[in-house]
Design brief:
- This protein is an alpha+beta fold.
- Helix content is about 15%, strand content about 20%.
- The chain starts with a strand and ends in a 16-residue tail after the last strand.
Length: about 450
């Protein structure tokens, strides 16, 4: 094991390979608050990549209902229990040690790479009977065949009501917190900086592309040992029985390369199929610059960088796993903070506050989600007139004044050409008397 720096954990960690980073990194932000669970993204991916024989159970993109749902079933609960077993009551964050290189504080627990040496052969006594297999390099488990059934298990299922609510003594559902809650979690491969699938593969069939950090599986080298399936804590590497190889999300890399001539004849990078099909406008993806030190190069005009590094409104999914995922989420505002802290780390409350009462620039950036299929590499805000203000109650209990300005937000493509321009307030157009009513 070597040592690498994981900025999401705020410390050095063990990893089987030495530091190696791409020129740019494919990354994305999902705004959970906007998702309606329509599964359009799921079917867009399915109809493009996994419609063939042997891929019936493959859902590279899926939308699952939390806290109960998951694909494969209960994937996160199982890996969290394995980590707890390997490091009892030690999976904690020290959020007081926050700084620029440790924006969420320091994780003092063990990652899936570090916990593998701490585990024992004792069986975990759980109802789901989690297998105790591991690759030797990464703590993980191999899902059973039945775990790949029903990708939308427990869809739209709320958490069990509180005792107070059951007795009809509560106030019902109201923001900022509901008595009954659930939310949709949108998932694709995180194309991690330190992929567990890559670390576990004995054939070295998995690699990160140096130009964009996309994690791919070389099908000519893969022999279907399923070590990647076992190791990936997010379970986004999936075995295909007809070819006896593993497959996973490829980030629609022809689109990232600008080689989808039908959609972009001018050759600029465009969003993946799941992103461009999103009905709720919850998704934004991009490519962030990577510095010589392996960290994100400072680029506050890049939408992804601004949300993750400047505003810290978007957080990684289970950063404590240690893979440094490049998928980020704006947490749902109606979910208990304790649950969100487990899923997104200790920055959840501050991220929700930043979303409920966004800064002037952030409010403008939120308008750019899914307004164009072309990847936005740079954005700019042109200030407009103030149109109103009102007081908002933050989930943290604080009150804050939100000022609204009719600013103009502009997005630019990879060639720094303007591709979209819109205002905060949607303009109103009145029909002329000639076409006043179509009936």
């Amino acid at each position: 094991m070597g040592n690498v720096y994981n900025w999401q954990l705020g410390r050095q960690m063990e990893y089987p390979y030495e530091e190696a980073h791409p020129e740019r990194q494919f990354a994305f932000v999902f705004n959970i608050n906007r998702c309606i669970g329509c599964q359009t993204c799921t079917m867009a991916c399915k109809s493009t990549w996994t419609f063939s024989r042997g891929q019936e159970h493959m859902w590279w993109n899926n939308v699952e209902t939390k806290p109960y749902g998951g694909y494969p079933h209960f994937w996160d609960q199982k890996i969290l229990m394995l980590l707890q077993k390997a490091n009892p009551d030690g999976q904690i964050w020290n959020a007081r040690q926050r700084n620029e290189s440790a924006p969420y504080g320091v994780f003092e627990g063990k990652t899936v790479f570090e916990a593998v040496s701490a585990r024992t052969d004792q069986e975990i006594d759980t109802p789901s009977d989690i297998p105790q297999e591991n690759s030797g390099r990464v703590l993980g488990y191999l899902p059973a065949d039945e775990d790949w059934d029903a990708p939308n298990l427990y869809e739209d299922t709320a958490r069990r009501p509180s005792e107070q609510y059951q007795q009809w003594g509560g106030e019902g559902a109201s923001l900022p917190a509901h008595n009954i809650w659930f939310f949709h979690l949108q998932r694709i491969c995180n194309h991690c900086t330190y992929p567990a699938c890559l670390a576990a593969c004995p054939r070295q069939a998995i690699y990160k592309r140096p130009e964009d950090g996309v994690v791919l599986i070389d099908q000519s080298r893969c022999r279907g040992y399923r070590k990647c399936v076992e190791a990936c804590p997010y379970k986004k590497s999936i075995y295909r029985g007809t070819t006896r190889t593993s497959e996973k999300c490829v980030a629609c890399f022809p689109r990232l390369e600008g080689k989808d001539a039908v959609v972009t004849p001018d050759g600029v990078p465009i969003e993946t199929r799941c992103m461009s099909a999103c009905v709720g406008k919850i998704r934004m993806q991009g490519l962030v610059k990577i510095g010589k030190d392996g960290q994100w190069a400072k680029d506050p005009n890049n939408p992804i960088y601004y949300m993750v590094k400047e505003e810290k409104i978007a957080l990684p999914l289970y950063p404590q796993f240690g893979t440094e995922p490049n998928g980020f989420y704006i947490p749902p505002r109606w979910v208990p903070i304790s649950y969100l802290n487990q899923m997104f780390g200790p920055g959840a409350e501050a991220a929700i506050d930043a979303y409920v009462c966004p800064s002037r620039k952030m409010l403008g950036l939120l308008q750019l989600f899914r307004v164009t299929r072309t990847i936005i590499f740079r954005f700019k805000l042109i200030e407009g007139q103030k149109t109103g203000e009102f007081e908002v109650m933050l989930p943290s209990g604080k009150k804050k004044t939100l000022e609204i300005f009719n600013d103009t937000i502009i997005g630019y493509d990879a060639r720094d050409r303007e591709i979209v321009q819109l205002t905060i307030e949607e303009p109103v157009f009145e029909r002329s008397k000639e076409h006043y009513n179509s009936i």
